[in-house]
Amino acid sequence: MNEKVAMLLNEQINKEFYSAYLYLDIANFYTKKGLDGFANWYEVQAKEEQDHAMLMYRYLQNNDQQVTLETIAKPDAVFETLVDPLKVGLAHERYVTSLINTIYDAAQEAKDFRTTQFLDWFVKEQGEEEKNSMDQITKMELFGEDARSLYMLNSELGTRVYTAPSLVL
Ligand code: FEO
């Protein structure tokens, strides 16, 4: 495997585990606010992020590459309003999309088509994650001020159930 592609994928393992950590912190915030549905949604999201990391970990191993696990940064966003974590989440997903695109670009340059094919799943997943974040912000801005609507939104987010990723290596 091209050295730069392998290095970027290895770094991305760390970024995905950081994403899990960030979302767990968001779930922690909502739990303290009594919004267990929001907390559930972000706990499920944290599990998905761990899956993303593990897919990259396994992909590198399957391709005879060295995996190096680095320190995971502390999530230090400060949330004041109920919509703040959702905005932090969207900004973070947009950042992750840019990272995936950078790896894709490097793989394409190296004519590493196995990796571009592997990353296709992540490109699509990023589109879904950004849309989920945007939808949550829109709903929160429309209904979040009204206690009854907030209760319903919380109930809706509480129904999210974890499912393992559809990508099989
Ligand atoms: Fe692993 Fe939220 O992208």
Uncertain runs: none
Q: Strand tally, please?
A: 0
Q: Name the CATH class.
A: Mainly Alpha
Enumerate the distinct ligands: MU-OXO-diiron
By CATH, the architecture is named Up-down Bundle
Share of helix, binned: over 70%
In angstroms, what separates the terminal alpha carbons? 17 Å
Structural class category = mainly alpha
Q: CATH-wise, what's the superfamily?
A: Ferritin, core subunit, four-helix bundle
Strand content: under 5%
The pLDDT mean sits at 97
Helices, by number, come to: 5
Return Rg in Å.
Answer: 17 Å
> What is the element string, with H for helices and E for strands?
HHHHH
Give the overall shape: elongated
Number of separate domains: 1
Indicate the CATH topology: Ferritin
Describe the structure.
- The chain is mainly alpha-helical and 169 residues long.
- It has a single domain, classed as Up-down Bundle (Ferritin), CATH 1.20.1260.10.
- Helices cover 74% and strands 0% of the residues.
- The chain has helices at 3-32, 36-62, 84-109, 113-143, 147-157.
- The longest helix is centred in the last third of the chain and has 31 residues, at 113-143.
- The model has no long low-confidence stretch (mean pLDDT 97).
- Bound molecules: MU-OXO-diiron.
- The site of MU-OXO-diiron (FEO) has 7 residues, from helix 1, helix 2 and helix 3.
